[in-house]
Amino acid sequence: MTQAGHDRALMVLDGLTKAYPGVVANKDVSFQMRRGEVHALLGENGAGKSTLVKTIYGLVKPDSGTMTLEGAAFAPGDPHAARQAGIAMVFQHFSLFEALDVAENVALGMENPPPLRDLAQRIRDVSEAYGLPLDPARTVGDLSAGERQRVEIIRCLLQDPKVLIMDEPTSVLTPQEVEILFETLRKLRDEGTAILYISHKLEEIRTLCDHATILRLGEVVATCDPRATSARDMAEMMVGGSLHVPQRDVAIPGEMLMQIKGLSVKSPAEFGTSLKSIEIDVRAGDLLGIGGVAGNGQDELLAALSGEITAPRGQIFFSGQDIGALKPDARRSLGICAAPEERMGHAAAPDMSLIENAALTGRKRKGLTTKGFIDWRKARSFAEEIIERFDVRTPGAGNAARSLSGGNLQKFVIGREILQDPQVLIVNQPTWGVDASAAAAIRQALLDLAAKGAAVIVISQDLDELMEISTTFAALNEGRLTKPRPAQGLTVDEIGLMLGGAHDMEVADV
Amino acid sequence: MEFGSINPVLLLASLMVAATPIMLAAIGELVVERSGVLNLGVEGMMIVGSVLGFMAATGTESAWLGFVVAALGGAGLALLFGVLTQFFLSNQVATGLALTLFGLGLASLMGQGYLGVKAPSFPDWHIPLLGDIPVLGPIVFQHDPMVYVGLLIVGGVWWFLNKTRGGLILRAVGENHEAAHGLGYSVRRVRMLAIMFGGACAGLGGAYLSLVRVPTYAEGLTAGAGWIALAIVVFASWKPGRLLLGAYLFGGVTVLQLNLQAAGVAIPVEYLSMSPYIATILVLVIMSAGGAPGSLGKTFHASR
């Protein structure tokens, strides 16, 4: 396929291979992009998408294979060379500096930035031209996730890129913000920029992209026209098998388990979001989905519910008992378990074994201590039970948590809490960065737990996930929670309005 | 309190001299920390600078040459720290503490033959015209050249950090080394250069003690000045302007308490000796605002 249309192709990748010790990240990857094309790169985690875009951006040197840009050989030694050649990239985890202001952040991503005063004016010009309002003098630490992404995009636009790489750009945006982003991208496409678009959200790819290349285990396994292919077919090409869709049994709500009355707590983090008058009621069998764009108080809400942040009297009740002052350990004893978003270092201690990690939260509810000493045999059998029941792929329970892939560790973390038989389970981003089949298994486990009579609160930025599993839905916006509504029958527009944060955006006039 | 026997002009004049060694060491460490590295070896680099500078100056009868050698020596010791922490990824806190202990031992070994020797003279500049201004002249414009070199370095660091692209890159590396690496900046190179600059400044500060302030070599000459420099960087919120204030405050109270001791004030000497440390820390704690560089003290490893 690389031979046809060489003259029209803007960028050609031919036979790119990159191996790391023990794993081949890219194996003979070839495809090409034309001017004015939005090209989707699809694949599960570990399929080699990141390695591929890092190769194009000059962060990774391929073992073999060649790249061609505008007919000339292209082999960037570092990102400076790639940027000079016309490659720009918006990173999945923003490459921004929180303590610096917008103009300084933009300057750092440019090869020959003008003096800061001129740059500020150019930022204003470009942000107006593309309908992405941004004040160059603001400190990035104070910006919302959507605004941060604008900083990255404007940084790219200022360099008139020939190829723009976007790595999971919509995972932190509201539906309205996504629409504005797409308008911007379409405008760029019409100006002749080629866009390489990486996302897990197949419906988005179907609306935006002209071509799709699908990677599995480092190899190109298929190409398709996403506008003419169903999302399910694309998912099955990525996974290489059929997908299990979670089933839910309709349960009748039971007794009141947890009540939050006007919860207001200050964020402990410097650039965090404080919670303001949160109201939540959850009954046995409820599955409350809480949506919202990252940085609107998700971490703080989880911490307040799990007990990492304690609350004033009269704000958090469990079965009628005021538990606001209780720490996580005490709440766990009562049956309130939690799994935070960050797996490495928050939900699990990376350098400790799975046995130790199992003992860390299961100590009380699983009776893993006798007279103050840890019963390691019981802890091991608890860890092995989690590994077996939740299909965690690891050579053994004695392995360090760090050695597991993201999806496997997430299954372990969620399984560890579910097997403690909680009455209330709170999880934040349960399937973030987890591949499709593992995500389906985790969602099924959450549904099963709720069907057994526990209350489950799922905080997530993945709206499709929340619509799939939750019975009621609420949204966090700047530390405030909307009134929960039944999830069934909510439209995308209604959800978008609940998520808010779209008030200061305007669609680019194309 | 009585100030009868204390001449305020002389007091203010000696304030600038007393503050200079700490200011030099602190401005170097400020640059190091802004690049995201915590080097606790300032005391060690200072004392090695003081003995090397003293040896070179007495050997050549030139104080200027002494300062050059002291800066090179401090930078050399810092290079050792840099190689260990940036290339062998050793822990910065432990390595910095080891550097201080190593520097103290090395200095006392090298200084054996120099105890009690007098330093070559390093005359004060009497700056024409400016130095003749009554009151202000003797206070500000009649010092040795290193006082002004120190001020120039502080001003230069402020200008570099806030006005140049190099300074922006240095701050970016200190703020988020992962992101800086992702944008293609060499975290290691930026940090090695910052560490060497910090070492050179600490060496100058040490040499100022042995060549001007004391001016002779004695065992344990720095007496904790390196630690005060470290504290001033933190309490100055990593800002050169506040650092200048902190160093002058410390120098001022030091000179004042010495004068009070000499004047025979009825306060126990121990309290007076404590006062510069307490006053500096108190004032800077009250003023301090703004956070540390985001990547300060974290080991950077360019993962795939």
What is the gyration radius of chain A calculated from CA atoms? 24 Å
Q: On the 0-100 scale, what is the average pLDDT of chain A?
A: 85
Q: Remind me, CATH topology of chain B?
A: ABC transporter involved in vitamin B12 uptake, BtuC
Provide mean pLDDT of chain B, rounded. 89
**CATH hierarchy: architecture of the largest domain in chain A:** 3-Layer(aba) Sandwich
Low-confidence parts of chain A lasting 5 or more residues at pLDDT below 50?
1-6, 501-510
Distance between the termini of chain B: 65 Å
What's the overall geometry of chain B? Answer: globular
Q: Which value, in Å, is the CA radius of gyration of chain B?
A: 19 Å
The end-to-end span of chain A amounts to 34 Å
Spell out the blueprint of helices and strands.
The complex is a heterodimer of chains A (510) and B (304).
Chain A: E1 9-20, E2 23-34, E3 38-42, H1 49-56, E4 64-69, E5 72-73, H2 79-85, E6 87-90, H3 102-108, H4 116-129, H5 145-157, E7 163-167, H6 175-190, E8 194-198, H7 202-208, E9 211-216, E10 219-224, H8 231-239, E11 256-265, E12 275-283, E13 287-291, H9 298-306, E14 316-318, E15 321-322, H10 328-334, E16 336-339, H11 354-362, E17 369-370, E18 373-374, H12 376-389, H13 406-418, E19 424-428, H14 436-451, E20 455-459, H15 463-469, E21 472-477, E22 480-481, E23 485-486, H16 492-499
Parallel strand pairs in A: 3-8, 3-9, 6-7, 7-8, 13-20, 13-21, 16-19, 19-20
Antiparallel strand pairs in A: 1-2, 1-4, 4-5, 9-10, 11-12, 11-14, 14-15, 17-18, 21-22, 21-23
Helix pairs in contact in A: 3-4, 3-5, 11-12, 11-13, 12-13, 13-14
Chain B: H1 8-34, H2 42-60, H3 63-87, H4 92-110, H5 136-140, H6 145-163, H7 165-175, H8 177-182, H9 187-213, H10 225-235, H11 240-262, H12 269-287
Helix pairs in contact in B: 1-6, 1-9, 1-10, 1-11, 2-3, 2-4, 2-9, 2-10, 3-4, 3-9, 6-7, 10-11, 10-12, 11-12
